[in-house]
Write a structure and sequence with these properties.
single chain, Aminopeptidase, globular, 6 helices, hydrolase, 4 strands, alpha/beta
Length: 197
């Protein structure tokens, strides 16, 4: 959350949700005082602009910037984002319940990772029951054709759950997810083909 004041907003509703501010298929949504307001436009926040610049420098483009093209062969990267909470592996599309063109492959990679951490796998619309524009998942996959997965770490029913789990939970989180992390690293040279194996 970029906590720059947005008019008369107060409390947790102040600012832009940076997890929803990327400029790929962006549409502003919701109440600007809500916790998940994604901003007036994609990349409206300096943090999002920085990520955009960084990823354009390090990721080759393996996909047309539309909503229907599959990724072209050749990607040698995988991007993983760690969030809290809910014990889920999420992937594109986040803005709709319609699967991404490479949705079955993203799900297969997620299911392979879930053999270690036992997380639920799918899109935000199928796993969480809601959608949102401007996500990092949609931006990285949609813009570059690189597999992007989000781990929502921490079971909501434990002391290590919720959006701000205790620091003492880090070792447990790492132990639970280390095999999945290692699999992603070992298959990054051909993630679309090796990731599900």
């Amino acid at each position: 959350m970029n906590s720059q004041a947005s008019g008369s907003c107060q409390g947790t509703g102040v600012g832009v949700d940076l997890n929803r501010n990327m400029d790929f298929n962006f549409q502003t949504t919701g109440d600007k005082c809500g916790e998940t307001w994604n901003g007036p436009r994609g990349n409206s926040e300096v943090e999002s602009q920085g990520l955009d610049t960084f990823f354009k420098q390090i990721l080759p483009d393996f996909r047309d910037d539309d909503l229907t093209s599959k990724a072209r062969p050749g990607a040698k990267q995988t991007v993983l984002s760690l969030h809290s909470s809910g014990d889920m592996v999420l992937h594109a599309w986040g803005y709709t319940k319609t699967p991404a063109p490479d949705g079955p492959k993203l799900t297969a990679i997620g299911k392979k990772l879930a053999t270690w951490n036992h997380f639920r796998v799918g899109t935000p619309g199928t796993v969480l029951g809601y959608t949102g524009y401007g996500s990092h998942d949609d931006y990285i996959y949609g813009k570059f054709g690189v597999p992007f997965l989000t781990f929502e770490i921490g079971n909501n029913d434990s002391q290590c759950g919720g959006f701000t789990p205790a620091y003492k939970c880090v070792d447990q989180f790492f132990a639970t997810n280390r095999p999945a992390f290692m699999h992603l690293a070992k298959t990054a040279d051909d993630p679309w083909n090796k990731g599900p194996q």
